[in-house]
Amino acid sequence: MPRHDGSPLARTVRMIERTVSAPEIGLIAATRVALGIGIGLLIGNRLGKEERKAAGLALTLVGAVTTVPLFLEVFGKKPAEKPRVLAA
Asked: CA 75, 24, 65, 58: dihedral to nearest 10 degrees?
C-alpha cells in the first residue's frame, strides 16, 4: 500500500503494543534460558554423552513447553490503549 508520498516501495506498518509485567518478562527470559542451555547441552561435549543428552532434552522440553502458555498469555491480551487528549 503506497504512502502519502506516492512511492510504490514505501509501505506503512502498523504496530500493536502490548503491556507485559515484570514477572512475565522474567518468566519469558527463564524459558529462553532453559531452551538455550538445553540446546547447548545437546550439541556440546562437556558432559558424558548420556548425561548431556538427558539434561539437554529435559531443559529443551521445559523451555519449549513453558513457552506456549506464556506466548498465549502475552498475545492473548488486548492491545494497550494509547492515552488520548480531549479538547475542552
From this structure: 160
